[in-house]
Amino acid sequence: MLVELKIHAIANIASDANRSMILLKEKNGERILPILLSARRATMLSIRAGIPISSPLALSLPDAFHVMLTMFDVKITQVELQSIQDGTIFCNVVCEREGIEKRLDYCLAPDALVIASTAKCPIMVEEELLEAQYMRKVGANSFALNVSSLTRKMLEDALQHAVESESYELASKLRDEIAKRTPEEEQ
Fold first, then answer.
1. Any idea what DSSP says for residue 137?
2. What is the CA angle 80-75-71, rounded to 5?
3. Which residues lie across from 37 on neighbouring strands?
4. How does 166-175 read in b/e, with b if 16+ C-beta sit within 10 Å?
């Protein structure tokens, strides 16, 4: 079963000026799915989603892509968050022309979200993926993220903190997750 999501907020990451996080919220629920992306892509999404930003950029690639598709009577009908692999979320972009549906598989989530925002189409996710990855509230103003949604740098920072605070079980889990990844897998 697919669950529709809406862009809820875009936040900067205090520990990394080059990264931001987009928060997608269930259209008819409370769960929030975090997706990491570059600050530049966050700016693109902010512009298209109508979220105020401090310094807008003149960006044209997603707009040009959308205009080209429109010229050939191709309509983007929805974006589906498909899977997460080593901290990277992949999406399908679903298009339709003359009643025939086609899918562009394995797009990176930030690119697919810019396309969805430009085309003003729904963003969908399978219930199972949302349930596994949504942010869980652990305090008044604190949320827990699934380790698979974190970048390598975030994992390394968390590992350093775990070692310093002598949380060795957590440190070993973080070490194992880092070992599964290679630097090339990061966005």
1. E
2. 140
3. 20
4. eeeebbebbe
Beta partners for 26?
Answer: 5
- Of the candidates 107, 105, 131, 110, the one whose C-alpha atom is nearest the C-alpha of residue 36 is 110
Give me the half-sphere count of Cα atoms (radius 13 Å) on the Cβ side of residue 8. Answer: 18
Quick one: CA torsion of 41, 86, 120, 59, rounded to 10 degrees?
Answer: 20
Q: What fold, for 2-136? A: Bifunctional nuclease domain (3.10.690)
| Phi then psi dihedrals of residue 43, to 5 deg | -65, -45
Q: Cα dihedral sign for 134, 14, 22, 111?
A: negative
- Mapped onto helix, strand or coil, the DSSP state of residue 18 is strand
Q: Which residue ranges make up each domain of the chain?
A: 2-136, 137-185
Distance CA 123, CA 44 (A): 16
Digit-by-digit pLDDT tens for the chain (187 residues) are: 899 999 888 877 766 777 888 889 999 999 998 888 888 788 777 777 777 654 444 444 666 677 678 778 899 999 999 988 777 889 999 999 999 999 999 888 888 988 898 888 999 998 888 888 887 777 777 777 777 777 788 888 888 988 999 888 888 888 888 888 765 544 4
